[in-house]
């Protein structure tokens, strides 16, 4: 049995999405900007997809800009939004995805003031701190739900705080859209990022919602596509797939979110039965219905990941050893977790194809893997490891 | 190419010499909690050879595999030969490691050497204690 529990990383393309996309490779292959019939049929498909994406977030189609993915949409929002706004201060939460953090850092390198909003131990932005820190901001960016711990942010309140401060408000909804309602009117955001491959659409497509009246500058220049906000011949097949994925997500959201929450809680209950296992982030309603992030004391995440991988189970980890930069999860650290808790963290994210049988299998194998690694560890669960330092460990600087 | 070689995966799945030695002749402890890899190596020494060796590791796949490999390489060797076991030996015996994981092989070699140093220090302290004779006060 292969059990995929890493849906926050990516999702399989739904067969219905693939079917919708197929004609647009070799049959309806026209360039949507061409005036002839080939172009017109591509354009029609483009605009239908745009309507479907807009519907997912209760926006108007003319408020949707297609991009090459969530990262590009985040870059457009941060760099393009900041460029159009007045002032020289950018604010984002300490737990943003690198696709938001890095453009903010870049603005900092270019001379802007860059401020991070702290989060509490559940990974939720503290409103009282935000109210003070947002003053004077040109742009504020806070994600709807965090990709690592699933914590759902108080976006409505934060958007209001940003509005009162005269700042543009951007919300990365890459992980939340399709899992929890993301109605831009209710949220009150100016900009919002969506990603196709997180909701059973193809990789390489995303969108930025730009509220009518909100101003941003482009970061990609060329033939003037997408109201000159994102030039480049449109990836029609991908966009068509994205549109279909949004349509399916919207339709299935109420049922699917309940089903996922039940499976999530079933898996979580079993995992927390283990000694030295702790949940990272909030329980229940302030958490994405498909997300579990658990720290296992005295052992390390990559070891757990590979152990589960040997059983055909796919998960992810916040350990330093598993990252390219050998840094533990910045999200867990921002939540006040100690390094060893970040190192021992494992994220399980469920999805459309997840069943109770898979969940039970994963729980049972997780117990086996954790036991095996605990037997190898010099430490026991419950031991305070905060001061552990035996030295003799020189990093090879890469 | 796979991230980890087949040899590394073998040592990860079925590591050799996991455990502790009660009343070990030498114990080496390396690593720090910031980076997340910590290794303990225990040795039993007879006639200047490593008669028995065990390890306990908290760390990633490479950390486990390198700990396992270093104990395999050191078992039965003279202390002098064991001190010569380098991080390069550990990595090459495993069929190579991804560059980002080289530091794990350093750690494994360091842990072994620390255990041997611990033994030598204890032995040196013990022998100087028996050799000590009272000095006449001037």
Main beta sheet of chain B: 3 strands, antiparallel
Strand order of the largest sheet of chain B: 1-2-3
Largest sheet, strands/sense/barrel of chain A: 7 strands, mixed
Q: Give the termini separation of chain B.
A: 74 Å
State the share of residues found in helices of chain B, binned by percent: 40-55%
Strand content of chain B: 15-25%
Number of strands of chain A: 14
- Spatial shape of chain B: elongated
User: Mean pLDDT of chain A, as a whole number?
Assistant: 95
**What pattern of helices and strands is seen along the backbone of chain A?**
EHHHEHEHEHEHEHEEHEEHEEHHEHE
Side-by-side strand order of the widest sheet of chain A = 2-8-7-6-5-3-4
Percent of residues in helices of chain A = 25-40%
What kind of oligomer do you see?
Answer: heterodimer
User: Radius of gyration of chain A, Cα only, in angstroms?
Assistant: 22 Å
Number of discrete helical segments of chain A:
13
> What is the number of helical segments of chain B per DSSP (H or I, 4+ residues)?
5
Concise description?
The complex is a heterodimer of chains A (398) and B (138). Chain A is α/β, with parallel strands linked by helices and 398 residues long.
Protein described:
- The complex is a heterodimer of chains A (398) and B (138).
- In chain A, 39% of the residues lie in helices and 14% in strands.
- Chain A is of the alpha/beta class.
- Chain A has 13 helices and 14 strands.
- Chain A is globular and about 70 Å long.
- The longest helix of chain A has 37 residues.
- In chain A, strands 2-8-7-6-5-3-4 form a seven-stranded mixed beta sheet, with helices on both faces.
- With 138 residues, chain B is α+β, with helices and mostly antiparallel strands.
- Chain B has five helices and three strands.
- Chain B has a three-stranded antiparallel beta sheet with strand order 1-2-3.
- The radius of gyration of chain B is 17 Å and the shape is elongated.
- Chains A and B meet through helix 10, helix 12 and strand 14 of A and helix 1, strand 1, strand 2, strand 3 and helix 2 of B.
């Amino acid at each position: 049995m292969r059990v995929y529990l890493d849906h926050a990383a990516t999702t399989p393309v739904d067969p219905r999405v693939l079917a919708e996309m197929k004609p647009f490779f070799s049959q309806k292959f026209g360039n949507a900007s061409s005036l002839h019939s080939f172009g017109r049929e591509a354009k029609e498909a483009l605009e239908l997809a745009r309507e479907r994406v807009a519907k997912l977030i209760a926006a108007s189609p003319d408020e949707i800009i297609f991009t090459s993915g969530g990262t590009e949409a985040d870059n457009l929002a941060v760099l393009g939004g900041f460029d159009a706004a007045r002032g020289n201060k950018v604010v984002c939460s300490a737990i943003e995805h690198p696709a938001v953090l890095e453009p903010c850092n870049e603005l900092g390198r270019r001379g802007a003031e860059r401020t991070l909003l702290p989060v509490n131990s559940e990974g939720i932005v503290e409103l009282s701190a935000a109210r003070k820190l947002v003053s004077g901001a040109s742009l504020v960016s806070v994600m709807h739900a965090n990709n690592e711990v699933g914590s759902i942010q108080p976006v409505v309140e934060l958007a209001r705080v940003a509005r009162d401060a005269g700042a543009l408000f951007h919300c990365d909804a890459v992980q939340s859209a399709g899992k929890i309602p993301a109605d831009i009117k209710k949220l009150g955001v100016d900009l919002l990022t969506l990603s196709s491959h997180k909701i059973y659409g193809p990789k390489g497509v995303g969108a930025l919602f730009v509220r009518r009246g909100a101003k941003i500058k482009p970061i990609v220049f060329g033939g003037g596509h997408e109201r000159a906000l994102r030039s480049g011949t449109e990836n029609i097949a991908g966009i068509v797939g994205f549109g279909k994925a949004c349509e399916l997500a919207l339709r299935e959201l109420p049922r699917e979110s309940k089903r996922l929450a039940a499976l999530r809680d079933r898996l979580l209950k079993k995992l927390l039965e283990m000694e030295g296992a702790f949940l990272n982030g909030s329980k229940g309603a302030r958490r994405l219905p498909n997300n579990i992030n658990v720290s296992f004391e005295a052992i390390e995440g990559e070891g757990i990941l590979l152990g589960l991988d040997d059983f055909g189970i796919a998960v992810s980890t916040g350990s330093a050893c598993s990252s390219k930069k050998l840094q533990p999860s910045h999200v867990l650290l921002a939540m006040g977790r100690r390094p060893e808790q970040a190192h021992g963290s494992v994220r399980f994210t469920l999805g459309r194809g997840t069943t109770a049988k898979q969940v039970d299998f994963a729980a049972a194998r997780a117990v086996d893997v954790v036991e095996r690694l605990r037997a190898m560890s010099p430490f026991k669960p419950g031991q305070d490891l905060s001061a552990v330092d035996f030295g003799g460990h020189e990093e090879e600087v890469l | 190419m796979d991230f980890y070689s087949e040899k590394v995966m073998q040592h990860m799945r079925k590591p050799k010499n996991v455990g502790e030695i009660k009343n070990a002749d030498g114990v080496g402890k390396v690593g720090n909690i910031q980076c997340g890899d910590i290794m303990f190596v225990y040795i039993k020494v007879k006639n200047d050879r490593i008669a028995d060796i065990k390890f306990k590791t908290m760390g990633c796949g490479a950390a486990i595999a390198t700990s396992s490999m270093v104990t395999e390489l050191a078992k039965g060797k003279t202390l002098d030969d064991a001190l010569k076991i380098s991080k390069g030996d550990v990595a090459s015996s495993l069929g190579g490691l991804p560059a980002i994981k080289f530091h794990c092989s350093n750690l494994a070699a360091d842990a072994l050497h620390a255990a041997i140093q611990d033994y030598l220090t204890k032995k040196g302290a013990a022998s100087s204690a028996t050799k000590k004779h009272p000095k006449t006060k001037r």
